[in-house]
Task: inverse folding
């Protein structure tokens, strides 16, 4: 090793392609990350894990028992997609791989940017919006608490218990207000406190409390129903949006829709105190219908990888990747379903990156 | 009374204008209903109740203690809007008037049609959709169960318990499948069973069970996040949509958005076995910002009144009102916020009705 090579900062990266098109898009994203690393003077040491539904069918588990411990030593996780409902129920695959990682490493902030890339036609007439959704990622409506009694009888009752903790709500709100400071200084906090009078009234109270520490950030509070309408009718009025696990889940799929589809929706599952690795993944799923055809759009995965480099401190490389994506879509590459193959899109982005 | 007058079928109607623009739009709707009644040979005997936030400030209650008993003898309820958050918290006003009526009369089916009226510009590029959302209206995520412990401390935990009963889920699904039979024969059932594994898995099971009794109806099952995206990306692919209280709430505001705004969103709270009155109300709220200015769009309220007449069996009158609304909007009347006053729009619809 030369002196230079030895001094290069190198990141340890866990790669989990997962199922279906997850495999195609993570391989595209890795090609882009490696090119960016070479040009921006850092190293990537990646280790791939074949944890997936196929792995489940072979071994009876989505990941080994020590899977979480194995991941702990990495600087970041890049994930493709999890789920293959034809052979493994989602309730098994997601609860056996994706969701435990989010919880185990306290990746409580799920960040999803929504804006139109140049050249992409969205379903809305509106095209000038730039929204950052911050979704609570560890508790709330997806706590898993609840149960069923008199199952299978005419008297059956099923409950689902949403659980919100002070720590959980406060930290995600602070995270959102912090994000707003480096953007346009506005937070919209989304609840449904007129109908859910325990959990959502609590969230509203916490929003008012946290807002006091951010006099420089403006805040509005909206109900999820009105908010869903606003995403469609006035998306340009939004800056940072913060919401519970369920509401954030819904709003970010809606955000993906208005930005032209899931092919463009990137996401980061952030562990803000860095006590464990953060995880980066496109919002889309494994897409069994187009898996293995080489036509999946890798842009969401590549954008997610750029968010990863940004999180690791490689902001110039992250910015260069985003610019390369934009250069490609501005030329119409990858902007419409089926117009280009996964390879074509990746090649165009790599070329723009080398420019 | 002449013989004819004595033989005219007369409906007993409870009118609750409520707050803000609720007053303007119900008066517009009543004018249309009365004209339709005169032309179609039936009578309307209406009694008005001033139950509202103003009533609360005077009396300490949104409605009298025997309010529900008073309403029981009516054939239908026409409601404007409830809520005036400046003086009465929503958690008081809604839980003191709107929500108890829905529950007391087992108005378990909240029906909301979403399509573009002629001349109305929606926010989507897509314009050819015709969706009927059926929202469960009595239980689920808005059950009110749950609570808070260690309130106000750093250890606070808030819970919200969604409660789904076999009776509640089965009846709303059957209602939706029945509706599909008189439309295009397709039902989309919306859950989030990959993350809410008690309540939503139960709903999915019930969907499969009920579907067996409707071999002539096709069904698909979607998660709420993907569904929100689909409403925006492919609304024309939807016919009847059935969802829980919360999911239906969100999807119908989204439906209102894609149909051009809340000014066009009508709704019916139906008690299908007619053991009590059904209630008809525009989806919009009291809109404090434009209340009393005479510029509220009455179309949603008038459309809701048409749904009321349809429910009462006056299908020709209901159809005539809808045609009159369409005749007005086709001329550009009431199609854009602020373009016409409440009176102008009502006058145009009345004129079309008399044509
Ligand atoms: C697959 C599913 C459990 C997941 C979620 O709801 O968290 C997905 O929809 C997402 O948004 O990341
Ligand atoms: C006002 C509110 C409680 C109500 C609801 O959520 O039911 C409204 O949003 C609606 O959709 O009718």
Result:
């Amino acid at each position: 090793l030369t002196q230079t090579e030895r001094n290069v900062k190198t990141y340890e990266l866990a790669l989990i392609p997962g199922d279906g098109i997850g495999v195609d898009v993570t391989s595209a994203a890795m090609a882009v990350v490696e090119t960016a690393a070479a040009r921006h003077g850092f190293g990537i040491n990646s280790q791939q894990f074949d944890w997936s539904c196929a792995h489940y069918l072979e071994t009876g588990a989505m990941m080994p028992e020590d899977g979480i411990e194995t991941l702990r030593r990495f600087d970041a996780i890049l994930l493709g997609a999890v789920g293959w409902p034809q052979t493994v129920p989602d309730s098994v695959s997601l609860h056996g791989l994706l969701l435990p990682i989010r919880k185990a490493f306290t990746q409580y902030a799920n960040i999803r940017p929504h804006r139109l890339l140049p050249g992409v036609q969205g379903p809305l007439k509106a095209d000038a919006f730039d929204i950052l959704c911050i979704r609570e990622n560890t508790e709330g409506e997806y706590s898993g608490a609840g149960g069923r009694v008199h199952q299978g009888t005419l008297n059956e009752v099923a409950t689902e218990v949403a659980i919100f903790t002070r720590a959980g709500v406060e930290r995600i709100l602070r995270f959102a207000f912090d994000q707003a400071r480096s953007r346009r200084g506005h937070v919209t906090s989304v609840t449904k406190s007129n109908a859910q009078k325990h959990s959502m009234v609590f969230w509203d109270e916490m929003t008012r409390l946290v807002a006091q520490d951010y006099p420089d950030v403006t805040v509005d509070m909206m109900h999820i129903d009105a908010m869903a309408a606003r995403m469609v009718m006035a998306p340009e009025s939004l800056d940072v949006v913060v919401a519970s696990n369920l509401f954030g889940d819904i709003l970010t799929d809606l955000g993906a829709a208005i930005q032209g589809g899931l092919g463009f929706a990137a996401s980061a599952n952030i562990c803000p105190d860095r006590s464990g690795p953060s995880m980066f993944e496109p919002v889309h799923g494994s897409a069994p219908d187009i898996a293995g055809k080489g036509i999946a759009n890798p842009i969401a995965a590549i954008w997610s990888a750029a968010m990863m480099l940004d999180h690791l401190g490689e902001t110039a490389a992250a910015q260069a990747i985003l610019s390369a994506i934009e250069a490609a879509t501005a030329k119409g590459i990858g902007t419409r379903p089926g117009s280009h193959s996964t390879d074509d899109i990746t090649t165009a982005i790599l070329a723009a990156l080398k420019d």
Q: What stands out?
A: The radius of gyration of chain B is 20 Å. Residues 21-40 of chain B form the longest helix (20 residues).
